[in-house]
Amino acid sequence: MKYYVLFALLLIFPELSYAHGQLSADGFVSGLLHPVLGIDHLLAMLAVGVASTLMHRYAVITAPATFVLVMALSAYLAMQGWYLSYIELGISVSVLILGALIHLLVKFKSSWLSLLMYLAIALFAVFHGYAHGSEIPQAANPIHFLAGFVLATAAIHCAGVLFAYNKGHGVSSHYRVSHFATAITAVGAMMSYLYVESWWG
User: Fold this and answer.
1) Which of 70, 71, 81, 118 is the most exposed place for a label (fewest CB within 10 A)?
2) pLDDT tens across 122-171, in order?
């Protein structure tokens, strides 16, 4: 139920979905807060952690590591002036797609689905990383900022893993995960719709 309350709040206050460009802190602290204060970043990174519990044995390490490494590289390229379009749409769609793939992983154990999840994780990490790298405060130390959001991202992934696991069993709680996936898929769809609507409007 609490996941649907979150969805309802985001429908009423859609500006909560986008927190990019609103940080004024410098360096490490700014980087640490950046993934946490954007609900789109937060949900996508939680989703990566949750999804990793539904894949192969070592995915709880390799799936989050894939996201973090690609994200850091994309952020570095953004800091160097690399240009990428439709960042907000890519981030919104990432929440939608990751949620939908988690639903499928709950229902079907398939190596193809796991591969598709890895590809989605790597692709969407590009958008999330670019958003971080392109919004670094002017006074911030780039290395400190990078270290901050990488650490925060890894912590959010770990939170997703812990959320998905059954206490004392070490296996994914499919009931809880299914409800989480439903909620973030709906939120991702809503955010994507709002972005497209504002773009066409």
Assistant:
1) 81
2) 999 999 999 988 887 776 788 888 989 999 999 999 999 999 986 555 55
Instruction: Tell me the two tokens of residue 96.
Output: 């939608």
Whether pLDDT at 185 is above 90: yes
Contacts of 60 (CB under 8 A, 6+ apart): 49, 52, 53, 161
Domains, the chain, ranges and CATH? 23-200 (1.20.1250)
Cα 2 to Cα 164: distance, rounded to the nearest angstrom:
15
Cite the DSSP H helix spans in 14-58.
27-37, 39-52
Burial class (CB in 10 A: 0-12, 13-18, 19+), 188: buried
User: Residue 165: helix, strand or coil by DSSP?
Assistant: strand
- Buried b / exposed e along 74-95 (16+ C-beta atoms within 10 A): bbebbbeeeebeebbebbbbbb
Output the pTM of the full model: 0.83
3-state helix, strand, coil in the chain (%, to 5): 80, 0, 20
